[in-house]
Amino acid sequence: MEPRVQYAQTKDGVSIAFYTLGEGMPLVMMPNMPFSHLQLEWQIPEYRRWHERLAERRMLVRYDGRGHGLSDRDVNDYSLDAHILDIEAVADRLGLEGLALNAVLHSGPVAIMYAARHPDRVSHLILWSTYARASDYLRTTQAQTIRSLRDQNWELYTETVAHTLLGWSAGAPARQFAVLMRESVTQEGAQAAFRAIGEFDVTSSLPEVRSPTVVLHRRQAPVPGVDVARSLASRIPNARLALLEGSSLAPFLEDSDAVVKAVDDFLGGGEEAAAAAERPGAGDVHTILITDMEGSTTRTQSLGDARAQDVLRTHNAILRDALKAHSGSEIKHTGDGIMASFASASRALESAIAIQRAFAHHNESNPDVPIRVRIGLNAGEPVAEEKDLFGTAIQLAARICAHAEPGQILAPIVVRELAAGKGFLFADLGETVLRGFEDPVRLFELRWRGAD
Fold first, then answer.
1. 3-class SS at 422?
2. Quick one: 279-446 is in which CATH superfamily?
3. What is the pLDDT of residues 189-206, one digit of tens each?
4. Please, which of 187, 224, 356, 372 could form a disulfide with 294 given CB 3.0 to 4.6 Å?
């Protein structure tokens, strides 16, 4: 089934088309700008299978950049900063605080700059057949020859580029990709995009990249050369260089199994290490997050069992996506919500914000069947037994959740203090008597609407 295309709004007012596929750690696949079209690439079997395979172990996020594909075409700004706004819009729309970033060819400099600016947000950086300085690509004889066609014969240009990028033996995929190129962007739009790309140079930002990075490249690829890949990897701290056999610049052609394995190996080790690092041990301080869905019994009676179950599946998917994106461990499902544990109070709060934002976005598109949840948090040292958590810390989190209104996030002062200085906005609600606790509890509301 073709993924459902959604839209995110950038800070400069551009609508960016995107879709998600699969569940788990977010892997954001950047467009091969300016030739990207979410629907048409899904119709190329090799392209579709490539994305489906990457989504088997994680959540794939694919978007069309500004000026092409299903995103807004009427744009004038194709600068590095403008393309970074596209990534930020999609990440904010999905509530992603941690993501792996996969850049292809001309999107490489954008990914490098984004990773340098957001070291806490980019968990992994994958650079495929790309460069840090556009002149390293544009100075080649092949690039200069192809560029001369762009202004003279648009159809011949797209056919030539498609065969150059995908390989002259690609056959049907190359012909389909040429059509995709012509449908992705107008000739004038491509000219404007490449004028901006020609100015890309992020070499000074390479030493600032702190995210684990792999540079993937095929040995016989015509442009950019292997020397560009080696130089790129050598300038990023602790980056890996993985040279694969083949000549196609399209990762979904030739030996695509080797590319998938390289990506899985790179992300797999990081995923396991991150999970182990974030999972609290016995006797550690846990930050507990508990959610509760409003009116689940009434909804079942009004919608019927089958449709109510569909709503519950959507509810569960949104919650679990947010937990995985912020290294939360689901302890148990309560029927109307979940209980999760975090090693970090900041990650628990980020996850709570992502949950409420995701439900708010869902409700905008589904006003007839909205899903509203209340969230309560607490921090302490619960008792662990048979993969469950017990004790006063858990009971207080549950009482705080029950006290919250739908759409609200409440936390006691201990959580607020653990996250002090992290940029969260709290409103002091004063002391409240909660059932089962003799002493009043000072509660704070975490503000999430419109918050950065």
1. coil
2. Nucleotide cyclase, GGDEF domain (3.30.70.1230)
3. 998 999 999 999 999 999
4. 372
